[in-house]
Please model this.
Amino acid sequence: MTDNISNLIQTPHARFRQDIVSMHAYAIQDSTGMVKLDAMENPHRLPADLQQKLGERLGKLALNRYPDGRVNDLRAALASYADMPAGFEIMLGNGSDELISLLALACDVTGAAILAPLPGFVMYAMSAQLQGLQFVGVDLTSDFELDVPAMLAAIAQHKPAITYLAYPNNPTANLWDETAMAQIIAAVGDIGGLVVLDEAYQPFSSKTYLDTIRAKPELHQHVLLMRTLSKFGLAGVRMGYMMGPKALITEIDKVRPPYNISVLNYECALFALEYKEVFSAQASELIAQRAMLFESLSSIPNVKAFKSDANMMLMRVADPQKTFEGMKAKGVLVKNVSKMHPLLTGCLRLTVGTAEENARMMVAIKTSL
Model:
């Protein structure tokens, strides 16, 4: 018996952390042959002439060398593109996911916690769990707004090292009330914590919190703002960036792996910024499609569509699983988020696609309800 226990302990599987063994990996749906409207991607590809120009440019790169100072050209280009506030610094990540992980790593001190509203982006909680930090989720109100009294109470009780506020939020796609945000940001500052504003969907949003930061910089010395080029149109390139007061970014940047941005990544991103008007036009088209999609969904009996400031939209139906499976059978893939959180009961999350894709999605919805 003792030998059996000893053999079990010595197996490689026993070397994994038990909380990791009990976790589920981030799930990615198989989209082969489907109209892919489940992951908030920009559905537009590069125009043919730009594809050729980019291919020629990438073909000239020295792939045998580590990334060089050209990565600093990208940092400067992104700072200019975002109109980064004075006194701020910028750091790059392999998508926002890496930045979220680096934040958890940098703030991993004894008793530290990460706080965020729920439902929200799953990586906030996952980054805390992977780093062994406490995650504190605070439910939104029934209309997907920040519950300010509950947030303030949680901040006072747990004194989180990091508080995330996604603007707009995923998966609810709404912007928070700015007065509510100001109260929460001030409360986090009072306990010496960081606020991270996640503006992943900024290309489709009617507002950016950077305007408030620029207007009142003295109130935001503990605030970081994170964005990504994924929604801009480069989801396959994996490029996130975070701006904040130089003293804060300097500390977080110490845990960034060397050469985390490949030569292919930074050259693709620089290329895209040189043709930003192409991507801006794509975003404008998707915003127009979003308005038409909301109007079409709102006209269907027993369907509740929620207004959006992102390139996605929530839809509540009587039987979300039946509707999801029916749409999938029609070749349209969306995301069933109905079991992610009680506030999302009955909800599917739809990515805004091209006019043709949205037309196919509407047919699939109507025939699947």
Summary: The chain has two domains: 19-40+277-368, 64-274.
